[in-house]
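Technical note accompanying the year-one report. For the benefit of new consortium partners, we illustrate the data format agreed upon in the data management plan: each record pairs a sequence with a structure-token string. No post-processing was applied to the example shown here.
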Amino acid sequence: MSINSLLKKLVIDDEFKEKINFIRNVSLFSGLSRKALSMVLGISYERNYSINEVIFEEGKVGKALYIVKSGEVAILKGEKKLATLNEGDFLGEMALLEEVPRSAKAIAFSDCKLILIYKVKFDGLLESDPSVGVKVLKNLSKILCTRLRSTSEGFAEVLDPKKKI
């Protein structure tokens, strides 16, 4: 093996390790083995977005999940900012479950790098290795349940006439 090919292999391995370590810390992929994380990385793409660039529009059909690798992403409903997402946060996760119109708009709040996983690629992963897909979907279900409970509790406070707001 030549020195150049050996160096190239070492660099690629370091890049791969960095990607594995990053994605391992994303809650959606919690508990996945290194092999499973590798499979997820195998179906993902990285894309850079410039500040104020639209990532997706409200009302357009969602086709991908986005993970913030660096920078900040703003979630907007009309002109109202609902959230700011940072490194390790993800958005558009409902697109992995169904292809329906997005309920909000996402824009790059700063220059950012996102990891994209398209539904069609995720569906292929589900077919090729159902155990990986089941773990990801189980994590997604827990996350969505937590968000729904949080939202419901907020509504319960508003609807409870004994509570002073």
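Partners are asked to follow this layout when depositing records. The helical segments are 3-24, 34-42, 119-128, 130-159.
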